[in-house]
Amino acid sequence: MMGVDLTPTCPLRSITGVPCPLCGTARGVDALVHGDLGRALVLNPGVLLLAAATLFLMVQWRMPRVTVPVRTIAGVLAVLWIWQLAGFSTA
Length: 91
Hints:
This protein is an all-alpha fold. It has 5 helices and no strands.
């Protein structure tokens, strides 16, 4: 019996057909939780960064403040979008 994929669809991809920088994140997290690191990386390499940040914040929860420069966030999203578009153009 085949499973049902309950992950939400990307609005940008649904409308334009072009993947956004976060496309594949939900499925990537699911793959990572199930121990499939290779599939998680293929779906969205940002999943590892997200998992690392989550673990860091869980361990350092007593820190009064964590600041991340906006340029860093924009840079990560730009790299993820380039990754997604490169995969989209070769598919």
